[in-house]
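SAMPLE LOG
Freezer: B-3
Tube label: C17
Construct: single chain, 126 aa
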Amino acid sequence: MSMQQSQFTDAASDLFVEVPLCSGASVTVPSAGYTFSVDVLFQSASYDFGDDGSGSSSACPAVILEGDSGTTFSHIIAQQCTPYARNIWYPMSWTFPGPSVSKVRLRFNPGTSWFGNILLDTISIK
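STRUCTURE (predicted):
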């Protein structure tokens, strides 16, 4: 899965990617929870994810996992206060505790303006 030509026009920009579960039917999460995992690659001709090219970026880019559009849970599964390097696969995961959800979504926030492609691979919920 990829988001081609993703454009974040300012520090407040977010990009959401929804992953429906079982054709949109609600899935009961067991008491031990489910672990969501994904591999993410940021591609850009110009800058790393979270770098605006000014040399003074104070952004802390993040990837947030949310259940049912953020109403059930919202958890940062990846964040660092340096940009994510281009063309490197980053494995990201988190075990969400429940309750039932019908979809999860990833919210990408570079914390600054950014333009490029975001590729997702090996998406799983176990």
